[in-house]
Amino acid sequence: METRFVEKATNAIADKYRLSILMELSRKGSLTSTDIQEMTGLSQPCVSHHVKLLTDSGLVNAQKEGRNLHLTLNKESLQQLSGFLNNLT
Amino acid sequence: METRFVEKATNAIADKYRLSILMELSRKGSLTSTDIQEMTGLSQPCVSHHVKLLTDSGLVNAQKEGRNLHLTLNKESLQQLSGFLNNLT
DNA sequence: ATCAAACATTTAAAAGTTTGAATGTTTTTG
DNA sequence: CAAAAACATTCAAACTTTTAAATGTTTGAT
């Protein structure tokens, strides 16, 4: 089943920095790693780590554009997760 | 905002045992800690710990009935979480 | 070609989580 | 009341996650 996805996706959300990244992606549409560094005050390697967790979970899409990493929400997977939780009720 | 709830709830879900407890609660309607022990093979203290995380998160209701702990899903909070995630998209 | 900017990787320390053994509490049963 | 059943708590070991310093890679500007 999709339980591995649910586990990885909820784990990706379950952190204050990563949750704030998701919310900011939702508000702004897209962000770069540098944007996230400025927004969180975290070190660059730490941001890189959090971004990797988010992209590995499938909740965030990453696309290299020149030397920038262009991050966007993966709406389909967020909706899939939302639907899974709703189906439990 | 509700971000602390989202953090705690997703954290509660983000574990294979706790996710399976939620899914079994969804299927069966209710469980006791002993049911969960049998179902997971985990030790009693470990089950107690996972149950506490689930109830502290607000996703699961616990009610003492004699010496048993009667666990049920908190559907409202699951729907709240589902709605939050859906609103990000 | 040089330099700088953006991001990734490696590594190690600090902090947090998971697990079960031992023990404690409460409730039911004989 | 004694014993057992169900759950909670304390504790310590094993494991995982988070963080940043150091370093590496790639891309763009001069």
UniProtKB/TrEMBL annotation, chains A, B:
NCBIfam families: HTH_metalloreg (NF033788). The lineage of its organism: Bacteria, Pseudomonadati, Bacteroidota, Cytophagia, Cytophagales. PANTHER family: TRANSCRIPTIONAL REGULATOR, ARSR FAMILY, TRANSCRIPTIONAL REPRESSOR SDPR. Residues 1-89 form the HTH arsR-type domain. Pfam families: HTH_5. The keyword Transcription applies. InterPro entries: ArsR-like_HTH, HTH_ArsR_DNA-bd_dom, HTH_MetalResp_TranReg, WH-like_DNA-bd_sf, WH_DNA-bd_sf. Gene3D superfamilies: Winged helix-like DNA-binding domain superfamily/Winged helix DNA-binding domain (1.10.10.10). One of its GO terms (molecular function) is DNA-binding transcription factor activity. Keywords: DNA-binding, Transcription, Transcription regulation. This is Transcriptional regulator, ArsR family. It comes from the Bacteria.
